[in-house]
Amino acid sequence: MTLTPSKLNSFLIFKLPAAYICGVRSKYIDKDKSIVTVKHRWINQNPFKSMFWAVQGMAAELTTGALMISEINNSGKKISMLVLSNTASFTKKATGRITFVCDEGYKVKEAIEKTISTGDGQTVWMKSVGTNEDGVEVSTFNFEWTVRVKS
What per-residue confidence (pLDDT) applies to 151? Predict the structure, then answer.
């Protein structure tokens, strides 16, 4: 099954409704890259009239998680995935439409192949960068994902 932005957005409605209500939307995915956007609105703002950090985190995590889900589906194996840890930095007030991009799908493929061949759990760090409509970076998130073949 090929993972598409519309399938991911349907997934959000039923499995992550808070992300959907806050406006997180998948826009593009292929084997190497995932793009997710979220627009600053009343429902997802903080008291300082910019986007709440957790909403940015949901959008950023979806860029990395979508690449994980896609590669796991392509493997044909039952593989569990989990965020082990994450870090974030914020460099500018997030207002307007924020676009998060992760272009590290190659890391996922390597980790999935290694967990299948060895049976051992693997970890992989993936970065998602958020930029505003002017192309200015507003935040960077790093997620440490773990994958393991289910027994």
Answer: 80
